[in-house]
Write a structure and sequence with these properties.
EC number: 3.6.4.13
Number of helices: 16
Oligomer: single chain
Strand content: 15-25%
GO molecular function: ATP binding; hydrolase activity; nucleic acid binding; RNA helicase activity
Shape: globular
Largest sheet: 7 strands, parallel
Radius of gyration: 36 Å
Protein name: DEAD-box ATP-dependent RNA helicase RhpA
Number of domains: 2
InterPro entries: DEAD/DEAH_box_helicase_dom, DEAD/DEAH_RhlB, DEAD_box_RNA_helicase, Helicase_ATP-bd, Helicase_C-like, P-loop_NTPase, RNA_helicase_DEAD_Q_motif
Structural class: alpha/beta
Number of strands: 16
Family: Belongs to the DEAD box helicase family.
Length: about 475
C-alpha cells in the first residue's frame, strides 16, 4: 500500500498544501481511492466516519481540475458535492479550499438557514466546486439561480445519513438535472438496502473500497457504559466533565429541548457548555462551534444533526446522555473522537429504559461494551447461556379422551357404535333412517319438549310463541 502522497502522483501544488496542513501519509481509504478517482472511475467507498473520506475524494478531484483549462459556466459548477448537514458541508468546503489553496480554483458552499443573496451572487459567476445540501440547492434551481448541466463529477457524501434525513427524493430530482455522462463518487458508512439500490442506479462499473467492516466502531475509541437511574444522569454527567483528562467533549441528546435543558443544568453546576441543533440559527451554531474549537466552551451538547457534521480535532470524549433510537447512530456519534490517529473515550449513560437500545447497539457492533453500575441502578442482566438440552423421555401417550368420562357405546343402525346420551325426560325415540332423518326435528309428540332446553316455548317471555324457524316440523 502507498505510504506517501508523493507516490500517488498528485499535483505538486496539492502536495505543498498537504505539507502545510501537516499531512504526510494517506489513510487506507485515501490510498485505495485516490488512484482510481484520478483515472476517472466511479467509486463506492464504505468507511466509518473519521477515516479521511473528504481528502479521499477532494484530492484527486482537485488534481484533475488543475489539469483542465477553461472557466466554469455561469450559475453552474464543474464538481458538485452533496452533504446531509450544514456543518458537514461547511467543513468539506473548508478542507477543499485548504488542499487547493495554490491552484486558483473557486469553491462555494450553499445550505439553508441563511439568506439567498450571497449564494446567488457566488453562483452567478460560476464556481469550480460547489458543496451543497440537497434542499437549498433545489430551492436555488427552482429560482433559476443554479444549473447542473455542466457537472462532470458528482460526490454523494454520507449517503446513509441522506436516507435518515429523508433526502432521497430530493437527490433523485437533482440527478435528473445532472448529465448522465459523469464521474460519480459515492461514500457511506453503512449500506442499508435503500442506499445499496441508489448506489446501483448512480454508479457505472464502480471501484469498491471498504476499509472497515460495516457498522464497526473506531479501534482507538475506548468504550464503556454506566448503568444508573434516569434521575441520576445529570449528576453523573457533571461528575464526568469534572474528571482529570477531560478535554473537548461532545454530549449527545436525543431531542433539541433536551439539549437546551442539559446546557442549562450544566451552567447551574458551574460548567460552561453550548448547544447545537436544528432550531438554532446558523450564526448561533457557528458561534457554538467556534467556542468549541478554541476551547472557550469545551463542552458541546448536540443532537444527531452533529453526529457526522462536526469535524473538530482534539475531541477527547463523547458522552451519550441519551442512547440513540437507531443503533447505527451510536457508531457515527463515537466517531467524533479518536480522529486522525488520536485516541478517545466514549461513555454511554444507560437507565433501565435504555436497556433495549443498549442490547441493539451491542448486537450491531458485535461486542459487549464494558459496564459499571452506579448506586440506585438495577444491575445489568448478565448474558444468559442457552440451557442445556435435556434428553427427551419416552412418555406413554394417554388414550384419546382419557380426560373425559368414558361413555358406554350404543349400537347405531348400520353397525356403527355411537356414544350414548343421557336420557332426558320427554325425549322421544331416536329417529331411524340415517343422518338426514336425525337432522330433522322430532315430531313424535306435540307435547314433547325439544331436546335443546334453551329453546323451549316456556323460555320465551310473556308466553310469546316460539319463532317460526323453531316451529317447523311441529
Amino acid at each position: 500500500m502507498t505510504t506517501t502522497f508523493e507516490a500517488l502522483g498528485l499535483d505538486t501544488r496539492i502536495l505543498q498544501a498537504l505539507a502545510e496542513e501537516g499531512y504526510s501519509s494517506p489513510t487506507p481509504i485515501q490510498a485505495q481511492s485516490i488512484p482510481s478517482v484520478m483515472e476517472g472511475r466511479d467509486l463506492l467507498g464504505i468507511a466509518q466516519t473519521g477515516t479521511g473520506k473528504t481528502a479521499a475524494f477532494s484530492l484527486p478531484i482537485l488534481h484533475r481540475l488543475a489539469q483542465q483549462t477553461g472557466r466554469p459556466p455561469r450559475y453552474g459548477c464543474r464538481v458538485l458535492v452533496l452533504s446531509p448537514t450544514r456543518e458537514l458541508a461547511s467543513q468539506i468546503a473548508d478542507s477543499v479550499r485548504a488542499y487547493g489553496r495554490h491552484l486558483g480554483l473557486s469553491t462555494t458552499v450553499v445550505f439553508g438557514g441563511v439568506g439567498f443573496g450571497g449564494q446567488k451572487s457566488a453562483l452567478a459567476r460560476g464556481v469550480d466546486i460547489l458543496v451543497a445540501t440537497p434542499g437549498r440547492l433545489q430551492d436555488l434551481i427552482d429560482q433559476g439561480a443554479a444549473r447542473l448541466d455542466h457537472v462532470t463529477t458528482l460526490v454523494l457524501d454520507e449517503a446513509d445519513q441522506m436516507l435518515d434525513k429523508g433526502f432521497l427524493p430530493a437527490i433523485r430530482r437533482l440527478l435528473k438535472a445532472i448529465p448522465q455522462q459523469r464521474q460519480t463518487l459515492f461514500f457511506s458508512a453503512t449500506m442499508p438496502a435503500e442506499i445499496n439500490k441508489l448506489a446501483a442506479e448512480m454508479l457505472t462499473d464502480p471501484v469498491r473500497v471498504a476499509v472497515a467492516p460495516v457498522a464497526t466502531t473506531a479501534e482507538k475509541v475506548a468504550q464503556r457504559v454506566i448503568h444508573l437511574p434516569a434521575n441520576g444522569k445529570r449528576e453523573a454527567l457533571a461528575d464526568l466533565l469534572r474528571m482529570d483528562g477531560i478535554g473537548r467533549t461532545l454530549v449527545f441528546s436525543r431531542t433539541k429541548h433536551g439539549a437546551d435543558r442539559i446546557v442549562k443544568q450544566l451552567g447551574q453546576d458551574g460548567i460552561t457548555a453550548n448547544a447545537i441543533h436544528g432550531n438554532k440559527a446558523q450564526n448561533a451554531r457557528e458561534r457554538a462551534l467556534a467556542a468549541f474549537r478554541d476551547g472557550s466552551a469545551p463542552v458541546l451538547v448536540a443532537t444527531d444533526i452533529a453526529a457526522r457534521g462536526i469535524d473538530v480535532d482534539g475531541v477527547t470524549h463523547v458522552i451519550q446522555f441519551d442512547l440513540p433510537e437507531v443503533p447505527e447512530t451510536y457508531v457515527h456519534r463515537i466517531g467524533r473522537t479518536a480522529r486522525a490517529g488520536a485516541t478517545g473515550e466514549a461513555i454511554a449513560l444507560c437507565s433501565h429504559e435504555d436497556r433495549d437500545k443498549l442490547r441493539a447497539i451491542e448486537r450491531l457492533i458485535r461486542q459487549q461494551i464494558p459496564a459499571e453500575t452506579r448506586a440506585g441502578a438495577a444491575a445489568p442482566e448478565p448474558a444468559r447461556a442457552p440451557a442445556p438440552r435435556q434428553p427427551q423421555q419416552q412418555q406413554q401417550k394417554p388414550p384419546r379422551g382419557a380426560h373425559k368420562p368414558q361413555r358406554q357405546p350404543q349400537h347405531r343402525p348400520g353397525g356403527h357404535a355411537a356414544p350414548a346420551e343421557p336420557k332426558r325426560q320427554g325425549d322421544g325415540p331416536r329417529p331411524q333412517g340415517g343422518d338426514s332423518a336425525r337432522r330433522r326435528p322430532a315430531a313424535a309428540s306435540q307435547d314433547a319438549p325439544r331436546r335443546d332446553r334453551s329453546w323451549r316455548e316456556g323460555d320465551f317471555r310473556d308466553g310469546a310463541p316460539a319463532p317460526a324457524f323453531l316451529r317447523r316440523g311441529r
